[in-house]
């Protein structure tokens, strides 16, 4: 017969009086109570513990892969766990909070954002370990699984990303004008034009560098909307993986991309008529695969960052002298908002799910509440007076 104690929550088995207890020295007529929470400790080898450790790492990555995390994120999940366990020469369930503090306060000390990211990854791995393997580890090795991240060493997000201040619209116009004048004398004309067009497209559309690198020629939809749009594979929110969305060309971007596709894209050594060919290709074909490869690989985001940095140091004048791709995204949001674009439209332009994320891009926008109030009053007067 089974009985559950409502106070302690323990599940017990009780044998009847007439059943043999099988235990020497037990008094006749008393119930034989066996608590199932009693720990069954079985000695095991160190090799078995290490094998289980490797299995948990693999299963953790599989689980996060099923959850939809990107491949680049999966490669970084287990690395902090391996790093700290290798340093101390212990298994994860042998880690203590003191060991974590010693490592990240000493040899593992990095920038605050890096330490925060690593400790968060370790804490998430231990949440998985407690959920799926805590019972097995306790039974086999007699060790309790407990995260070394506690209330005292858990890092806080201090906002150490800083304030991104983009150049003004006049400075951006002068920057792209000066850069374009240099294109005719560039040693590698197609590469120089590609870098210029990619930078200005990022500024006009607000697309990320990684998104632009993945745009294919077949993703350009010239007839969508008023001036055309192009498909980008954006960053998914909360680990949901890449999401497709439409980015906007606008009038200036349409003319620029049309000129680039018609006059420059065919100068690269691949088939520019293939719809799967990248819009911004690399200038080199992989030699290991042969020279007859029909499609060139896409341009790397790091290559774009370096080219934008060199161009900004040479042509950008003003208080901001160095540009990077994400600052172009901030400049796009700020300048469109200052020109009167509503917050909701700026959110759609950047592909944000939450308007609070968009507000963070407008920290340096020069708003004028008094002018907005006057314009709102004038609109109300016209509406009440029947004016169109």
Automatic annotation (TrEMBL):
Residues 165-374 form the Tyr recombinase domain. Transmembrane segments: none annotated. Belongs to the 'phage' integrase family. GO terms for biological process: DNA integration; DNA recombination. GO terms for molecular function: DNA binding. PROSITE patterns: TYR_RECOMBINASE. Keywords: DNA recombination, DNA-binding. This is Site-specific integrase. It comes from the Bacteria.
